[in-house]
């Protein structure tokens, strides 16, 4: 089968013929239909320091996808050929304390699809049945293909109550833009999104931000005054991984405010801890999605009218993957979908 492979320890990906995955008795074989290109894939493509120390070469990459079940192992009763599914990208151990307690997103032994085990940028992918999500009939296939990053947005956005609250989102990447749509849908009052990229801020606006800020030109504190806010944002969603974005967030959060951090910093971030202590802030780290409460919430919000499809800005054939990564590197894209 065709697959996009990290073949050499250097920048790039290679379209290769590789053997089809074999399934075990608990696995599901899926014919991949569409895939989303994630920031993680971009790190792997660009071969940055994180990728160098994380990705064993060769590796079939990719983890955001929708596809059709073609075969199931002999222990699998809940999935059948022809069903439309996506995969949860974190494969957990099932045996640690958190897994046994049902808190699988907190597993300390998580493996990543397309990171530590063969991924979905391929004609077929095999996953344990416990990692397969059966889509409701009315979910659009393009949207279904990005349930993984949509789930990051939902997990972060719904970490703290937002009804009637003012929410600051730092980073208008695809996940920040989807989070803006989610918190608006969940009843937030002001949804202020920051970035340094006007193209992306415009996308955030289209997706539900009530005010966008290019932090190279405007200060968040001034916008609080403009909006008549007196005490700071109630909830912060850090979705850039940028040190100064996080510091600005701390400085603009109200006393007792809550911050959910999804953005992955590439370096240590020094902060003034007095702001955390004296302002009594809660800071929560977010990794992946809750299995499967987040998936359930995504489905019912879409069925209830939430629209995240504007985040998909480009659709290409998988053979055009070089162009997809070029687009992602340019910063002039939301989600890029590859058709297999
Ligand atoms: P992205 O890289 O596309 O978006 C990040 C955005 O932050 C960019 O648009 C960038 O211009 C912006 N930015 C840079 N400096 C900024 C600043 N000073 N202030 C405000 N914005 C700034 O990433 P994404 O795919 O949308 O993902 C968002 C973040 O979440 C990334 O850091 C990603 O690595 C991380 N992530 C975490 C998880 C997890 O499970 N924790 C999963 C997926 C992604
Ligand atoms: Zn575990």
From TrEMBL:
Active site: 40, 43
EC number of the protein: 1.1.1.103
Catalytic activity annotation: L-threonine + NAD(+) = (2S)-2-amino-3-oxobutanoate + NADH + H(+)
Binding site for Zn(2+) 1: 38, 63-64
PROSITE patterns linked to this entry: ADH_ZINC
Role, per record: Catalyzes the NAD(+)-dependent oxidation of L-threonine to 2-amino-3-ketobutyrate.
Listed pathway(s): Amino-acid degradation; L-threonine degradation via oxydo-reductase pathway; glycine from L-threonine: step 1/2
Cofactor binding summary note: Binds 2 Zn(2+) ions per subunit.
Site for Important for catalytic activity for the proton relay mechanism but does not participate directly in the coordination of zinc atom, residues: 148
Organism listed in the record: Stratiformator vulcanicus
Listed NCBIfam families: PRK05396.1, tdh
Protein's gene: tdh
Protein name according to UniProt: L-threonine 3-dehydrogenase
Family annotation (InterPro entries): ADH-like_C (IPR013149), ADH-like_N (IPR013154), ADH_Zn_CS (IPR002328), GroES-like_sf (IPR011032), L-Threonine_3-DHase (IPR004627), NAD(P)-bd_dom_sf (IPR036291), Zn_alcohol_dh (IPR050129)
């Amino acid at each position: 089968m065709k697959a996009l492979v990290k073949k050499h320890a250097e920048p790039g990906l290679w379209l290769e013929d590789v053997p089809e995955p074999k399934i075990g008795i608990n696995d599901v074989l899926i014919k991949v239909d569409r895939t989303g290109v994630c920031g993680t894939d971009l790190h792997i493509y660009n071969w940055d320091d994180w990728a160098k120390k994380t990705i064993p070469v060769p590796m079939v990459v990719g983890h955001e996808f929708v596809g059709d079940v073609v075969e199931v192992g002999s222990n699998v009763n809940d999935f059948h050929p022809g069903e439309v599914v996506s995969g949860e990208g974190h494969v957990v151990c099932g045996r640690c304390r958190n897994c046994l307690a049902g808190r699988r997103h907190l597993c300390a032994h998580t493996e990543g699809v397309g990171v530590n085990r063969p991924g979905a940028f391929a004609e077929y992918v095999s996953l344990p049945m416990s990692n397969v999500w059966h889509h409701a009939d009315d979910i659009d296939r393009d949207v279904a293909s990005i349930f993984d990053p949509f789930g990051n947005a939902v997990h972060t956005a719904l970490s703290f109550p937002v009804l009637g609250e003012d929410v600051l989102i730092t980073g208008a990447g695809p996940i920040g833009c989807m989070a803006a749509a989610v918190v608006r849908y969940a009843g937030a009052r002001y949804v202020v999104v920051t970035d340094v990229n006007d193209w992306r801020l415009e996308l955030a606006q289209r997706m539900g931000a009530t005010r966008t800020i290019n932090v190279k030109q405007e200060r968040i504190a001034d916008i609080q005054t403009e909006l008549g806010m007196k005490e700071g944002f109630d909830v912060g969603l850090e979705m850039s991984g940028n040190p100064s974005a996080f510091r600005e967030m701390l400085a603009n959060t109200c006393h007792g405010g809550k911050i959910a951090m999804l953005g992955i910093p590439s370096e240590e971030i020094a902060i003034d801890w007095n702001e955390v202590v004296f302002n009594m802030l809660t800071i929560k780290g977010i990794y992946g999605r809750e299995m499967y409460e987040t998936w359930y919430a995504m489905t019912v919000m879409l069925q209830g009218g939430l629209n995240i499809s504007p985040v998909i800005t480009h659709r290409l054939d998988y053979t055009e993957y070089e162009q997809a990564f070029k687009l992602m590197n340019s910063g002039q894209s939301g989600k890029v979908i590859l058709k297999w």
